Amino acid sequence: MRLRLFYPIAILFLVAYFFYRLVSFLQIFFEHTGISITQQEIKIAHATIPDSRPQYIPKIIHNVFHDWKNQSMPADWKKNRQNCIDLNPDWEHKLWSEEESRVFIEEHYHWFLRAYDGYEHRVQRIDALRYFLLRNYGGIYLDLDNGCLESLEPLLYYPIFTTDGGRGALSNNILGSYPHHPFWKLLTESLIPYDHNYLFPYVTISYASGQWFETAIWDKYHHSIGGQANGEENLENLLYRIMMDDRPGAEPWIFFTQERGGSWNNWDNRMFLWIGDHLALDIMVGVSCIGLLLWCFKQCARSCIRKCPVQKDCSKVRSVEFFA
């Protein structure tokens, strides 16, 4: 009797665990933790000169260019970077090459070097590098397809921020923080546990090191600090999401531009971008498919029981009565 019950209970346990993991994963595409703030609100808050608020972020802008194709930096990316230099002349502007990036990881985070070298997709090294740079130096990280429209000084008064496109996961193309913020410690030390091949290149890049991964750890960190983020004495614990929605009717972008990107496009990018834009439909289809599979399993179980001619021959299928 116990053996008969083992298999259906084990199957139920696996199904329950699958649903738990699925729900946990899907949460990264919906409402996010942290304080949502528009670029207009940031500009208004800085309008009083001099700004009396504490300044957290050092004046450093990090860009990364790994020359995978033995080509020089595209002209539009050069223009983006130069605009940021011109608008922030008293800042340190650091452009990290592929060689410099590896040396930095080897010298400061040697424990991660093996994972860094072992990434299947090169863009994952850039993903990981940006997190370690902000952990070590602080400052503002910008993808090269993002430029500057104004001085970034108003952003220095927020302890840590990421960008939020208003749909799906958070973005990791623009990040800012003071050095050694505990969020970066949690995030960088979570890279190895998340380093798996998820079959599809887009999923592997996004969930092992990219924006899905960042979103999952962002929410995990926020929940871990709980009420510690409340009160004037805990301002450094506050996490900010700068809204950068590019859809018609959204708040205008004040500090940043968005140019041609796609340096890490793979064959499955368009498919998953379409899925991301139709989440409600995706969930309905997914739930319907799961329901159909469970119904088919139940029908097969009943059919096996009805066709079993002799009682003793039914011992192997009797356990499926649990589902009937």
Low-confidence stretches are 310-324
Quickly count the domains: 2
Helix-strand string: HEHEHEHHHEEEEHHHHEEHH
- Indicate the proportion of strand residues: 5-15%
Global structural class: alpha/beta
Dominant shape:
globular
Overall radius of gyration = 25 Å
Task: Count the DSSP helices.
Answer: 12
For the largest beta-sheet, the strand count, sense and barrel status come to:
7 strands, mixed
> What is the share of helical residues?
40-55%
Tell me what the CATH architecture of the largest domain is.
Alpha-Beta Complex
Which CATH top level class of the largest domain fits? Answer: Alpha Beta
End-to-end separation: 17 Å
Number of strands: 9
Transmembrane segments: 7-30, 279-297
Pfam families: Gly_transf_sug
Subcellular location: Membrane
Family: Belongs to the glycosyltransferase 32 family.
3D architecture notes:
This protein has twelve helices and nine strands. Strand 6 (160-164) and strand 7 (171-177) form a beta hairpin. The chain is globular. The chain has helices at residues 2-26, 39-45, 75-87, 98-108, 113-118, 122-136, 182-188, 191-194, 201-208, 211-225, 269-277, 279-307; strands at 35-37, 60-64, 92-96, 139-142, 146-148, 160-164, 171-177, 240-243, 256-258. The longest helix is centred in the last third of the chain and has 29 residues, at 279-307. It has a seven-stranded mixed sheet. A two-stranded antiparallel sheet has the order 5-9. The chain has two domains: 2-14 and 281-323, no CATH class; 33-265, Spore Coat Polysaccharide Biosynthesis Protein SpsA, Chain A (Alpha-Beta Complex). By secondary structure, it is an alpha/beta fold. One of its GO terms (molecular function) is mannosyltransferase activity.
